[in-house]
Design brief:
2 copies of one chain form a homodimer. Chain A has about 270 residues and is an alpha/beta fold. The first copy, chain A, is built from 11 helices and 12 strands. Chains A and B meet through α1, α5, α6 and α11 of A and α1, α5, α6 and α11 of B.
Chain lengths: ~270, ~270
């Protein structure tokens, strides 16, 4: 039969498509990819089960990466689906699942949905004016990578905007628990727009102090987005320096570093003041 | 009250989200943005009306661009929505509508959905490995622009893939009807992957004949996608030279020029042979 990958979109249970909901209701087993992004604090298994009237099996990273054959078991004779926040092809892991299914001769179908990669258009910046997307990782005292700087710089040199996907730390263990071998995890941590802006300003400052030309600085225009697609979504357009003090509220946050702004983009950003 | 922009996604009537459908059913007036992309041959007003059990008002380009106040009439006291294929922020026009609504003090809410800009992930190329998106226009005998070449080149120099959105000609008039002032329009024309590949190979050939280094040539890997999100979607990965002869079937087509391929991307593309 068919292995379905079904996107859940960005908001709540009702952001599944009508077609996606029909597929969920007819599938023999319903998996929920449970380790990325907003599932940790927004949607949960119980909500989804109540809405679908179906049992939902949580598939953590181990199950998806190592045990995909468990998920795909009997998919040649029964319809199986896996639910994914956003669009199913936001993460490499799903490509692994698709490849494995195809190797097993199982038909794969995708029910697409919104992802942060297209929904950022709601701030008024045009999607075709975006360059490469970057991931910004949380710094520690001893590990402060800045490799994403070059990509933002390359985008800005061409006038392009940059989506910065902000770090999420889940299933972290304290050093104590790690040494004791205890599988006790710290609460998930989500990087904020303010933290990301602060890191970016520091990177630019260090480049400048090293005598280098910088592709952006504290005065560069940026856009903070929080909870895109939710009823309480928040969008703020300001400088990177100002963003370091903006409280965007609950996760998930996404930061955009602007490139060259077109007049209509400027007008749209003006509707999202500090 | 609220002016809603509701994305319809890429496929059929059932690709609206459950939340989107609830909004449509409660709105006082339901507009359908009728002049872009697939509405011309896929979804139509009658299908939507039957599925929603509601009257749907077609909003052509004139109405959206010049008459947005007609659409927004009474939106301060009644809920109004406009349906848009894909995600609502795929086109600049919707930014205009949003700005106008905000000027009038009307609350604007967006129900996001999949768009071709994120759904192309289904071919296995990672979304964060894409650079700037380009639009490829149909050549005529006397007008053969190639400005998108430089953008594809800049993407490839950084190893990035490029989405080529292919030209759609709607409401074209024959020279005869134009001169007679008759508002009779030719059937819509949709550029195919084969046509786009042919133009791109010609551009590369001309650059090379002019003694220039080229960022791609006839042997460069590309991916053709047709009817993404439909049940009969088709994906083919091959060289640009091969793509000039591939029959992808009904519109809409999208062509991707590959940058540097990661191993998992290569594995995925291998599942879409000629």
């Amino acid at each position: 039969m068919v292995f379905y990958l079904i996107g859940l979109g960005l908001g709540d249970v009702k952001d599944i498509t009508v077609r996606g909901l029909e597929v969920v209701k007819k599938c023999k087993r319903v998996y929920l990819e449970a380790y990325t992004s907003i599932l940790c604090y927004g949607l949960d298994k119980q909500q989804l089960e109540a809405f679908y009237g179906r049992e939902v099996i949580e598939a953590d990273r181990d199950l998806v990466e190592q045990g995909s054959d468990v998920i795909l078991e009997n998919a040649d004779t029964e319809d199986i689906c896996m639910l994914v926040v956003g669009d199913p092809f936001g993460a490499t892991t799903h490509a692994d699942m698709v490849l494995r299914a195809k190797q097993l001769g199982i038909t794969v179908k995708v029910v697409h949905n919104a992802s942060i990669m297209n929904a950022v258009g709601c701030c008024g910046l045009q999607l075709y004016n975006f360059g490469e997307t970057v991931s910004v990782v949380m710094w520690t005292d001893t590990w402060q990578p800045d490799s994403y700087y070059d990509k933002i710089a390359a985008n800005r040199q061409r006038g392009m905007h940059t989506i910065c996907l902000l770090d999420i730390k889940t299933k972290e263990q304290s050093i104590e628990n790690l040494m004791k071998g205890k599988k006790i995890y710290e609460p998930p941590r989500y990087m904020t727009c303010a933290e990301a802006a602060d890191q970016l300003v520091k990177i630019a400052d260090r480049k400048r102090e090293a005598g280098l030309e910088t592709a952006f600085d504290a005065e560069t225009q940026c856009v903070g987005l929080a909870r895109v697609g939710w009823d309480n979504q928040k969008i703020v357009a300001c400088s990177l320096r100002e963003m370091t003090n903006v409280e965007m509220g609950d996760p998930l946050h996404t930061l955009i570093i602007c490139g060259t702004l077109h007049p209509i983009e400027k007008d749209m950003l003006a509707t999202f003041p500090l």
